[in-house]
Specification:
This protein is α/β, with parallel strands linked by helices. 48% of the residues lie in helices and 14% in strands.
């Protein structure tokens, strides 16, 4: 049953008070107007600026209304006095449902008792859910969903029909391009989608599939307004990620699962993955590249922003951050160093009155129960610090272990960083450099390239293989000083996690310091 069908059933069953949570007043009003027409009910709307007027009345009609009905008490009296079947839509009544306005809450409760014996229904419409305890049992809450792909498709068709007669604007969308554009627009309200489509037409005089990035920019505004999640506009792609062939193949396959064809085939949306392993080997880089590969927003979940000073505020911040992520879905939610974020969960009762444990519980429950297409990429370095609840199947689709790159992968990574800095990788003996750089992580290889550039620049010479070899030989990789910890991680991952390099890559050896 859709929400619209459920809403109509509740009205027919004479539920007295309905509370619809939505930012899209126009969509909700259109639904209620259609229900009123089908059920032969008059539909009225109220706000503190217009008072009680017929739904959809013109501005001139609104100015002729008398002012007393702007008072919520007077408006509720009119609801009770009205004779005949009707729907009453009260917009943003929640500021009056506070301890400062006890009479409004009391009158609403009395109104509910009266409406049960009539063919009238009172609908509270607000973007926030704020209910006093006095009327909780009288109210039925409905969360109005964001537009579906079909809703956005109808909007796109309407815009296309309106601009087609104009010769200066063109619509260049085949079926695949249309699907890409609609997929990127999921999570926007109809108003937001209409704004971004109109902006594309104004700026480019055309509408095409390559403008997906502009739709994602609109989603960036939603993230900024929340203040809890960080939007990453990364330029990284898997072309800039060396090695990790097994992980790349897995992510490429899952990217198609967001399409309607995959859903019709019976494929569920991918839930997420946990990346464990050695520091500096590309775990965070993969999160950024995944968002670019799938053409979806990348959101960074910073646990430090979640914790507040008031009791219960931390848990509420997590729930709000999750709601924002779901509102812009499909999206990639990047939780960096999750082992540090939830370290000390078991001792939380003694250290912070259980706040970390409750936040962790809220997050892992959402991981298991979420239905929105939010793909979670969590990274961790210290496997021993991970709570066992996080590793249970169902939280993530897969757990990958990211090991140190092998010789061929190191040569590929060096080539990527040389190309980034305007050098032709073919001019360097990367095979030899790959052998010399045993135990180096990807981050350490990048720093070696930078160090070699500094050396060559100070000598007034062009960068050569010798400069890179010298920089590598002068660097002691972290893996040698942490050889024991890396071996413990590998022992844990054997049989518990998949290799990000793929089964053919084997295991890199770590040289003792």
């Amino acid at each position: 049953m859709t929400l619209i069908e459920e809403l109509e059933d509740l009205i027919r069953a004479r539920y007295p008070l309905l509370y619809i949570v939505s930012n899209e007043e126009a969509r909700v009003e259109a639904v209620l107007a259609a229900i009123g027409q089908r059920r032969e009910k008059q539909v009225f709307e109220w706000s503190c600026t217009t008072g009680l007027i017929p739904l959809g009345a013109s501005w001139q009609s609104q100015k002729q209304r008398h002012a007393p009905s702007r008072d919520p008490l007077a408006a509720l009296d009119q609801v009770i006095d009205h004779v005949g079947p009707a729907l009453f839509v009260f917009k943003d009544l929640h500021p009056f449902l506070t301890r400062q306005h006890p009479a409004v809450t009391r009158r609403l409760k009395e109104c509910a008792r009266h409406l049960k014996e009539s063919l009238k229904t009172l609908v509270l419409l607000s973007p926030l859910l704020e209910l006093p305890a006095e009327i909780e049992k009288e109210v039925t809450v409905l969360l109005f969903p964001l537009p579906t792909r079909a809703d956005l498709g109808a909007l796109l068709d309407r815009i296309s029909r309106e601009v087609q007669p104009r010769q200066q604007v063109s619509i260049e969308l085949d079926e695949a391009g249309r699907e890409r554009l609609l997929q990127s627009a999921l999570g926007l309200t109809l108003g937001e989608a209409e704004n971004v489509f109109a902006r594309m037409l104004v700026r480019h005089r055309r509408l095409g599939p390559e403008q997906v990035a502009e739709v994602l920019a609109e989603k960036r505004q939603i993230i900024r307004k929340s203040g809890l999640l960080e939007y990453f506009a990364s330029e990284e792609t898997f072309a800039t990620v060396g090695g990790l062939g097994g992980l790349k193949e897995w992510l490429t396959q899952r990217g198609a699962a967001f399409t309607p064809a995959a859903q019709a085939y019976g494929l569920p949306a991918p839930r997420g993955l946990l990346l464990l392993g050695v520091q500096g080997c590309g775990k965070s880089l993969c999160a950024k590249a995944t968002a670019n590969l799938w053409q979806v927003p990348l959101l960074r979940f910073d646990m430090g922003r979640m914790f507040g000073s008031l009791v219960g505020s931390s848990e509420e911040n997590v729930r709000r951050a999750i709601a924002v992520a779901e509102s812009v879905a499909p999206a990639v939610l990047w939780v960096d160093e999750i082992d540090k974020a939830f370290a000390g969960t078991h001792g939380s009762t003694f250290s912070d009155a259980g706040t970390t444990a409750r936040v962790f519980g809220t997050f892992v429950t959402w991981l298991s129960e979420k239905t929105a297409p939010v793909f979670v990429v969590a990274t961790a370095n210290e496997i021993a610090q991970l709570p066992p609840e996080l590793l249970r199947k169902g939280r993530f689709d897969e757990i990958f272990f990211v090991d140190l790159p092998r010789a061929a992968e190191r040569a590929e990574i060096l080539g990527i960083h040389l190309a980034k800095r305007g050098r032709d990788p073919a001019q360097f003996d990367r095979a030899t450099l790959g052998e010399v750089s045993t135990d180096f992580s990807g981050a350490e290889l990048e720093q070696a390239v930078i160090s070699a550039l500094f050396d060559a620049f100070s000598l007034g010479e062009a960068l050569q293989t010798g400069h890179l070899r010298k920089a590598l030989q002068e660097t002691v990789p972290l893996a040698r000083t942490m050889a024991e910890a890396i071996r413990r991680s590998r022992e844990w991952a054997a049989g518990r996690a998949r290799s990000a390099q793929g089964p053919e890559a084997g295991t890199a050896e770590v040289t003792s310091a």
